Amino acid sequence: MKCYVCGTDNIESKARCPLCGFPVPRIVGDNGQEMEKLKEMAGKYRQKKLEGWKTGMTIYRHEKKGEDLEFNVEQKICLADCSELQIGEIFWNDQKFARVDANGPVELKVWVQKAQQPEKYGTVRVQAPDSEGFWQVGVRMQDGWKLQFVLKDDKKQFASDDFSMDELIQ
Ligand SMILES: [Zn+2]
């Protein structure tokens, strides 16, 4: 069975999940009410674990300075509060991004950060939507405290490889 909090698999022989510490439930029979209660507890536990954590990426803007000097200005943007992410579901950020000229995968510089602590940065690769329109970026929490970044246009969406934050979650 999978942990209800972080999605770590094969935990049935353990007392607690080795990754997040949530007690492995012992439910006798198929009790719907117990299950509901358990899921609620797991949800609160997950929220507490991820409290204060934010994730996002770095984008680059072209800015004109003076007559014709153009700078690649780095800007850190927040995409989601991690405590609001549900495992397996994509949280879409409202911002629209201008298309980047890319055939095939692009690299995103992504980060996670708790409050004012230093960020953990990483790079993920994701297929770029091949259209003239704007992109939206979403974040999906995967099993084992791993994040995926998802790009979509009006037709298709593509998910990045995993960006793990498991060593950061206490
Ligand atoms: Zn767990």
Can you describe what's shown?
The chain contains one helix and nine strands. It is mainly beta and 170 residues long. It folds into two domains: 1-49, no CATH class; 53-164, no CATH class. The strands form two sheets. Strands 3, 6, 7, 8 and 9 form a five-stranded antiparallel beta sheet that branches. The longest helix is centred in the N-terminal third of the chain and has 18 residues, at 32-49. The radius of gyration is 19 Å and the shape is elongated. The mean pLDDT is 89. The chain binds zinc ion. Zinc ion binds next to loops.
User: How many extended strands?
Assistant: 9
Largest sheet: 5 strands, antiparallel
Output the structural class: mainly beta
What's the multimeric state? single chain
Number of domains: 2
* Tally of contiguous helical segments: 1
What is the string of SSEs from the N terminus onward?
HEEEEEEEEE
Q: What characteristic shape results from the CA principal axes? A: elongated
Helix content range: 10-25%
Write the SSE topology.
Blueprint: H1 32-49, E1 53-65, E2 69-81, E3 90-92, E4 105-114, E5 120-127, E6 136-142, E7 146-152, E8 157-159, E9 163-164
Antiparallel strand pairs: 1-2, 1-4, 3-6, 4-5, 6-7, 7-8, 7-9
